[in-house]
Amino acid sequence: MLDGRPLIDAHVHTARLPTLPPAWRQWAEEFGSAHPWQDLYDDTGTLVPDRVDAYFASEGVDVALLLCEYSPKTTGYQPIEDLVPLIKHNPRRFKPVANVNPHLHYPIDAELERQLGFGAVALKLHPVHGGFSVADPELYPAYALCRDAGVPVVVHCGTSSFPGSANRYADPTPIDDVLRLFPGLTFVLAHGGRGWWYDAAAFLALSREEVWIELSGLPPRRLPEYYARHDLKRLARKFVFGTDWPGVPGIARNARAVAGLGLDEETVSLVLGGNAMRVYPGIADDLGSDQGTGSGQGSGQSSGQSSGQGVGG
After folding, report:
1. SS3 of residue 124 by DSSP
2. How far apart are CA 54 and CA 295, in angstroms?
3. Hey, which bits of 46-160 come out as E strands?
4. How many angstroms separate the Cα of 132 from the Cα of each of 3, 166, 224?
5. β-bridge partners, 125
6. What is the CB-side half-sphere exposure of residue 205 using CA atoms within 13 A?
């Protein structure tokens, strides 16, 4: 917990460094320079589970959703298997998120089913790094599987500066068409429309109960600016906290910056943890049975606000 509130970071990159292109490390070093994320790795570029667990505990994180990615043109192959040591070390704090790419995986639902077998609590799609539309019919079997399993779909919804990125696919508006075909499917808009689509993301979240905005890569102090055309207090009730770690000044730092936006206490609690408990299956049960996930009672870093806008996944 952080300052008496459950804290869930819904967007964490814990890849092995050898699987990543140089641009990824440059991004992490630029936007994560305020904390020693490199110290969590061993000499082979692999995260050390007890170091990672202790770090997230010190930041007050009860649950962290760990991302894999299959985007060979941009950020490389980050297989879900590489997340297993962290998940095994602390299965209550660390939850995997599946990832599929219609250019690589066929049948796509079979690959998704395989990754759900690792305990994935969501499916992440990265149209910008993978080079595909969220409305591509090749994804329909994955959408049907997620809908029937009660698993949300997280979609990268914002610009990326990684070489090979196709930012035209960051537009969230095609999701509206997908929702007509798959009623009951839940979407989470990672990065909240960063760049050119803040209004589109906000409109989708406010008009559709099953759409949420996830805050990774967005400096909290700038949220009133990004969503200036909307009632922030109303929109914030559809926010899910996420950081894009390690490309963030600090997890606790960003969470406290959200708490400093002037929102009421109920809304702050929803953003930092409550909404994620509603969206991602099984998390609420784990937190209910082990509030704070054991050692996750750290006080976090000193108060402050995030600076800089990330470009990560």
Report:
1. strand
2. 8
3. 63-67, 69-71, 76-78, 94-99, 123-125, 153-158
4. 41, 8, 31
5. 155
6. 29
For the beta carbon of residue 301, count every other beta carbon within 10 angstroms. Answer: 20
Residue range 293-311, pLDDT digits in tens? 333 333 333 333 333 445 5
- Please name which of 226, 112, 122, 128 lies closest in space to residue 168, comparing C-alpha atoms: 128
Helices (H), 165-264: 174-181, 198-207, 223-226, 232-235, 251-259
**pTM for this model (two decimals):** 0.91
Question: Per-residue pLDDT tens for 234-243?
Answer: 999 999 999 9
Contact 64, 243 (CB under 8 A): no
Q: How far apart are CA 103 and CA 165, in angstroms?
A: 15
Contact between residue 237 and residue 268 where contact means Cβ atoms under 8 Å apart = no
d(CA 193, CA 156): 8
Q: For helices 174-181 and 140-149, what crossing angle results, to 10°?
A: 60
Separation of alpha carbons 233 and 267, rounded Å? 8
Structure token pair of residue 73: 């043109």
